[in-house]
Amino acid sequence: MLAGRRPEGGIRPGQCRLSHRLRRGPGRAGPVSERPLLIFGAGGLAREAAFLAQRLGRRVTAFVDRAPGTLGGHPVVTLDGAVARWPGAEVSIAVGDSALRRHLAAAAAAAGLAATSLIDPATPIADDTVIGAGAIILPGVSLTVNIRLGAHVLINPGVTIAHDVVMGDFVSLAPGVHVAGNAAIHDDAFLGIGAVVSNGRPDRPIVIGRGARVGAGAVVTNDVSAGFTVIGVPARPMRGRDVA
Ligand SMILES: CC(C)(COP(=O)(O)OP(=O)(O)OC[C@H]1O[C@@H](n2cnc3c(N)ncnc32)[C@H](O)[C@@H]1OP(=O)(O)O)[C@@H](O)C(=O)NCCC(=O)NCCS
C-alpha cells in the first residue's frame, strides 16, 4: 500500500549513492570515443540507441542479441561472438525491462565490456548533475539542477526532471514522465508513460521504492513502497500486484 513510511529511507537528494559517477555537466564532456560500440538489444529501443549514437557522432559496430542477423545495415551478433571480435568494446544496454537490463549489464561487465552512456547532445546538464555509466537519455528530455541519475537509467523522450532528484541504478522512465522537485526513485523502479511524481519537500523528498511500478498516467502524491505497483489519480496500489 501507499504508506507514510519511507520504503527504503536511504537515498535523498544530495546524499546519493551512485555506483558510477562518470558524467558531470555541463556540455558534452570529452572527445567522441573511437572504441567499438555495441548496442545490446534488437528492438525499438536498440534502434533508438543507434539513433542517439548517430546524433553523438558515433558509429554503431554491432547489435548484440540471441538471434544473429542484421539490423539497419549493422550486424546482429551473440554476446560470445561480440566479445571474440571486439574485446573491451563499449556497450549500451538498450533493453526497456529494468531486470533484464541489469542482467545484461552484469553479463557485459563480466565479459570485459565497458558500459557507456548515450545522452542526447541537446540535453541540458547542469554543473551539479551526475549521471551514472550506461545511461540512455533520449531526445527531448529536460533536466534542471542537482539531479543524480544512477547507472543504466533509461530516460525516454519528453521526460522532465526538476531540481533535487536522485535516482538509483536501472530506473526506467517511459515517455512523458514528469518528476517534480525533491524526489528519490530507487533502483529498478519503472514509471509508465505520462506518469507524474508530485513534489516532495527538501527535508522529506517523495520516495518511490526499489522495483516499484507506477502505471501509465498515474499521479504519485505519496511514497510508493518497494515492489508495489500503483495506478490512477492519485496513485493507489493495484490489488494483488504487490511483491513487498
Ligand atoms: C500498471 C502496469 C505496470 C500494470 O501492468 P500489469 O500488472 O500487467 O496489469 P494489466 O495490464 O494486466 O492491467 C490490470 C488491470 O489494471 C488496469 N490498468 C492497467 N494499467 C493501468 C493504468 N496505468 N491506469 C489505470 N488502470 C490500469 C487494466 O485495465 C486492468 O484492468 P481490468 O482488470 O479491469 O481489465 C501497466 O498497465 C502500465 O501502466 N504500464 C505502463 C506501460 C508503458 O508506459 N509503456 C511504455 C514503456 S516505454
TrEMBL record:
Site description Increases basicity of active site His, residues in chain: D164
Binding sites annotated in the UniProt record for acetyl-CoA: I193
Chain intervals for the UniProt region annotation (Disordered): 1-29
Residues binding substrate: G96
Domain of life of the native organism: Bacteria
GO molecular function: transferase activity
Catalytic residues, chain numbering: H163
Protein name: Acetyltransferase
Provenance organism: Oleomonas cavernae
Taxonomic placement: Bacteria, Pseudomonadati, Pseudomonadota, Alphaproteobacteria, Acetobacterales
